[in-house]
Amino acid sequence: MIGQEDWAGETEERVITAALPRVRTLGWTRSLVVAAARDVGLSAADAELLFPGGARDLAALLSARHDRAALAALSEIDAAALKVRERIRRAVLARCEAAMVDEAAVRRLVAWLTFPANLALGLRLVWVSADRLWRWAGDEATDENHYSKRALLAEILISTLAIRLAGGEAAAASHLDQRIAGVMAFERWKGGIKPAAFAGRLAAAFGRMRYGRP
Asked: Residue 134's CB: how many other CB atoms inside 10 A?
């Protein structure tokens, strides 16, 4: 017998799958949630119970799906055999490729997350993605470096995805290599971004992303 948590998880995945083709016409709205829920046999009341945050809940589900896809691709790689620079390069590219599977929906999501009302959600989602990728890369820092590393990687994830959407795969890879060689000089990790500056730096990065700029 399927448990309640299993049912909720499976149903959430069915709803986000149904929602993706509808994003182009409905956007990231509560109407999207209701329509997708109905597509899988749920009522509007059921949708409200399962997704109390509306489109924000769907956005979080999609980001988590892309994180899982990236980590699944990275599981084929022996991270320990690579230098840290290469681990981060592989991780960022894998996360961008996972997002591009749902390119049309992601384009609308990026625009939606850059609005002030949704910015906090965007910051939280990119932080979680950066944390998951750093864990794959073997990071075990528990001091301030834990936060500065994730802040740096979150910025790079945002800018590289923006370039991927605006300029294509080659442009994104070139941009990523430049960032790793410059801003992300790994010998400077300990002196990286301070946690207090994280929100401001990422908010600025999201703002640039709205206009397709790194």
From this structure: 21
Same domain as 105, residue 35 = no
| Same domain (yes/no): 116, 14 | no
For 179, what's the count of Cα atoms within 13 Å in the CB-facing half-sphere? 23
Tens-binned pLDDT, residue by residue, of the chain (214 aa):
455 668 888 999 999 999 999 999 999 999 999 999 999 999 989 999 999 999 999 999 999 999 999 999 999 999 999 998 999 999 999 999 999 999 999 999 999 998 989 999 999 999 999 999 999 999 887 777 788 888 889 989 999 999 999 999 999 999 999 988 876 555 454 445 555 566 666 666 666 666 555 5
Question: What amino acid occupies position 72?
Answer: A
- CA-to-CA dists, residue 35 to 38, 109, 129, 143, angstroms: 5, 17, 28, 45
Whether the full predicted model's pTM is greater than 0.70, yes or no, is yes
Quote the CA–CA distance of 183 and 164 in Å, as a whole number. 19
Looking at residue 163, the DSSP 8-state letter turns out to be: H
Contact 32, 23 (CB under 8 A): yes
Residues 69 and 164 in one domain: yes
| Euclidean distance between CA atoms 201 and 157, whole angstroms | 13
Q: Say how far apart CA 58 and CA 83 lie, in whole Å.
A: 35
